[in-house]
Specification:
Length: 296
């Protein structure tokens, strides 16, 4: 919506520039008529020249912005593939707003947090979808609001699609896909340190699935233990991530370690940190997994 107001502002500037130009032309014509009638015209000619200059400056602002926006928006066509197949929105809005669309007479829904992995492989382009509502404006600004929808490579052989903003599957497959990814025999685990001095990124680790599930369970609404104020200095904190081998399924939990204790992070504010205490045996296991040893 902000783009619409901005373009509207540019149009107003063009209108002002055009009005000043017309006034300047009128003054110039009047001046020339007065000249032929041997009357004074110098003041009107000077006024006309000033108006021409002012209108040129005002006109240059919107033109310059539009040219710049058209050049920068050229990148929105990168990777675009015209498949010749258009999906239709479920409710008339763009698919990013409605979270549903129809393709080949089948309803697709956004997976949301059920499948929120990001390190996956895309396959063939299968369709296109309009994600904007301002076609004329898109033409003026050289903006491509039509996205390419790709099939996603997955180990389960499901029909899963990606239009660039999350993952989508057929509504009729929802339960089967969720059950498949939540009951895999093997997952991959990574640890990402929040230490600003640690630039190693995601480090692959070996993790027991039951231990990870026990950490995730502390976020559950059924978990009765209250978060505790962490009074000691936090010496290590980061995120442990569980992913499916194909990268589509992702869960994460933030853990925080002090010299003597470990916690599943709950909240923070005003310099205070809260967490759900982790039992000593699990904390010792995690420290070994993360290659973190207690200081003597």
């Amino acid at each position: 919506m902000g783009v619409v107001f901005f373009v509207g502002f540019l149009i107003i500037l063009c209108a002002i520039a055009g009005a000043l130009l017309i006034i300047g032309i009128a003054l110039l014509i009047v001046g020339n008529v007065r000249k032929r009638q041997m009357k004074k015209f110098k003041g009107k000619r000077i006024a006309a020249i000033i108006l021409f200059c002012v209108s040129a400056v005002i006109f240059a602002v919107p033109v310059g912005w539009i040219v710049m926006l058209r050049a920068s928006n050229a990148s929105t066509f990168d990777g675009y593939v015209d498949t010749g197949v258009k999906v239709t929105s479920y409710d008339g809005w763009s698919i990013s707003s409605s979270k549903k669309f129809n393709l080949n007479n089948e309803l697709y829904v956004n997976a949301g947090t059920k499948l929120n992995g990001y390190d996956f492989q895309i396959g063939q382009a299968v369709a296109n979808a309009d994600t904007g509502n301002y076609k004329i404006l898109d033409k003026i600004l050289n903006y491509n609001s039509t996205t390419t929808i790709y099939a996603v490579v997955n180990d389960g052989g499901f029909t899963i699609l990606s239009p660039g903003n999350g993952l989508w599957y057929r509504e009729k497959d929802r339960a089967e896909i969720i059950n498949y990814y939540q009951s895999l025999a093997e997952y991959e685990y990574f640890f990402y340190s929040y230490d600003n001095n640690d630039d190693t990124g995601n480090v692959k680790i070996e993790m027991n699935a039951d231990v990870f599930d026990s950490l995730i369970a502390k976020y559950s609404s059924d978990y009765s233990e209250k978060a505790a104020l962490i009074t000691e200095e936090i010496v290590l904190d980061g995120s442990i991530k569980q992913t499916s081998p194909d990268g589509l399924y992702l869960r994460g939990v933030t853990v925080e370690f002090t010299e003597t204790s470990a916690y599943v992070a709950s909240s923070s504010g005003g310099g205070a940190y809260y967490g759900y205490p982790i039992d000593e045996e699990t904390a010792h296991y995690l420290k070994n997994v993360l290659a973190f040893s207690e200081k003597p």
